[in-house]
Protein: Pirin N-terminal domain-containing protein
Organism: Seonamhaeicola aphaedonensis
Amino acid sequence: MKTIIHKRDTRGFANHGWLQANHSFSFAGWYNPERIHFGALRVMNDDIIAPKMGFGTHPHDNMEIITIPLKGVLKHRDNMHDVWEEVLPGEVQVMSAGTGVQHSEINGSSTEYLSLFQIWIIPEEQGVAPRYDQKTFKAENRNGKLQTLVTSIKDTDSNSLKIHQDVKISRIDLNEGEVFNYNLKSKNHGVYVMNISGKYNLGETTLSSRDAVGISETDSFTVNTTEATELLFIEVPMISL
């Protein structure tokens, strides 16, 4: 089994006043030649956005974008619908940029900070038709068991959101002292595990809140929690750029 440890304090950080951004991989003004991507996972940003602030209209193309609000209210608008959509904690948003899309993202609250993960996945096909979707995932359905959030548009799982890549993005909430075994889709896949909160052991390595680890070249791995822990699994093909 191959592992790449990304401790929380090794991430890129940018404080723009209205935006505090943590980058697991090279992004914007932060560049680390050893942290460009993990397989098809290109961006894993952990952002905090001030009340009423956000990103004005800007373009994307040929990227699969997944947004997971953790706290607060996200409001999204794009040129496919031109209406503001709210995305709340417990919901997940996906957008296939494909041939090109223009969108805006803002904090929909005038008083509360917005905390979210934004994930970019390199698509398996270029030039697809842009699409948008969002879905609610109940927290009680991931207590002690894996809750699948996002899979390939070719996958038959009707309960997950869809993107143009052979991925499996999932969450689980574990109690202190629980043991969980994760099985990978194939030997050509790897999993980037973000610890949303809590603490667990992976072999001899202890990972705390916002630490992450990339795991590949294995069929499965086991996590052992030492306190209540929330984990996000981003399983992707281990492609080369």
Q: What stands out?
A: The first strand starts at residue 2 and ends at 6. The radius of gyration is 17 Å.
